[in-house]
Amino acid sequence: MTGDAIFDVLLAVLGGAVRVGTPFLFVSLGECLTEKSGRINLGLEGVLVFSAMAGFGGAYLTGSPWLGVLAAGVSGALLALIHGLVCSLPRVNDIAMGIALMLLGAGLAFYLGKPLIQPQAPQIPSISLGGWSDSGQVQAALKINALFPIGVLLALFMGWAFMNTRWGLLVRMVGDSADAARALGNSVNGIRIWATTAGGFIAGLGGASLSLYYPGSWNEGLSSGQGLIAVALVIFARWSPVRCLGAALLFGGAGALGPALQGVGVSGYYHLFNAVPYVLTLAILVWTCSPKRSIKGAPLELGVSR
C-alpha cells in the first residue's frame, strides 16, 4: 500500500475504534461493576440485544433518541435485576442463570422487535472533533458518538469511586470477602443485586449505541456476540474501569480493521480481518486460563484468582 493508503487505513481504524468500541465500553463497564461485587453475568449478550431493541423502539415511538437511550438503560436494568434476584437464591449458579438470561433477552428482543425491523428511528447525534481540518476524511473519522464522552467520564468516575467512596468500598468488599461484609452488618445479596442491576443499566446504554448510532438500525443479528466478548474484555482489563476504556478502543479498532482495509481496495481477506476481535477474545481466554498464572485484580469471590 502507498503512504496515503496507510494513512487512510489508520484514520479509519481510529474513527472505527471509537465508533465500534462504544458498545464494548458500556457493556464492559457494566460487567466490571457486576463482577466487582463477586457475581458474573454472562447474560449481558441478551441484555445488549434486548436493550438495543427497546432503545430503538423507544426512540421510534417518542421521536427522541435520548428517550430511546433511557428506555435501553431501563430495559437492561430490568433484565439484570432478574439475574441478580434469581442468583441470590440458594444453589443457583451464576453461569447457568447467565446463559438462561442470554436466551431470554434474545428471544424477547426477536419476538417484540419484529415490527421494528423496517422503520427508521431518530439517531443519537454526533460530536464533530475534526473541524480544525479541511479534509473530509479527517472530519468523518473524528465524528464521535455523543454517548462516547459519557462512557469515558463514567469509566473515570467508576475508577475513582471504587477507591474513594463508601459504596465503592462495599462493592469491592463483597466481591473479595462476603463473610467479611456480613460480619460488618452489610447485606451481601442486596449489594450484589444493586451492582448487577446498575451494571445492566450501563450495559443497556451500549445496546442503545448499537441501534441508535452504529449501525443505527434494529435487526436480529445486531450484537454479533459483543456481550460475551465484554466478559473477556473485563478480564483483559484486570477489572479496572479505566483499563476497560483502553480495551474497548483496542477491540473497536480490531473490529474496524476489515472495513478500513476494504475502503482502500484490500478486499481479499475481508472476512479474515473481521474475525480479529473474536481471535483476540480466544487469545485472552487461553492466556488467562493457565493454572500456573494467577489473575491479578480479580475479585476473590469469583474464584478465578485462586
General description of the model:
This protein has helices at 3-36, 44-62, 65-87, 94-112, 136-141, 147-164, 166-176, 178-183, 188-212, 226-236, 241-263, 270-274, 276-288, and strands spanning 126-128, 143-145. The longest helix has 34 residues, at 3-36. The chain has a two-stranded antiparallel ribbon. The model has no long low-confidence stretch (mean pLDDT 86). With 306 residues, it is mainly α. The chain has one domain: ABC transporter involved in vitamin B12 uptake, BtuC. It is globular. It contains 13 helices and 2 strands, in the order H-H-H-H-E-H-E-H-H-H-H-H-H-H-H.
Task: Write a brief structural summary.
It is built from 13 helices and two strands; from the N terminus they run H-H-H-H-E-H-E-H-H-H-H-H-H-H-H.
Looking at the chains present, what oligomeric state does this protein adopt? single chain
**Secondary-structure element series:** HHHHEHEHHHHHHHH
How much helical structure, as a percent, in the residues?
55-70%
Rg over C-alpha atoms, rounded to the nearest angstrom: 19 Å
Distance between the termini: 48 Å
Biggest β-sheet strands, sense, barrel: 2 strands, antiparallel
Percent of residues in beta strands: under 5%
Secondary-structure blueprint:
Elements: H1 3-36, H2 44-62, H3 65-87, H4 94-112, E1 126-128, H5 136-141, E2 143-145, H6 147-164, H7 166-176, H8 178-183, H9 188-212, H10 226-236, H11 241-263, H12 270-274, H13 276-288
Antiparallel strand pairs: 1-2
Helix pairs in contact: 1-6, 1-9, 1-10, 1-11, 2-3, 2-4, 2-9, 2-10, 3-4, 3-9, 6-7, 6-11, 10-11, 10-13
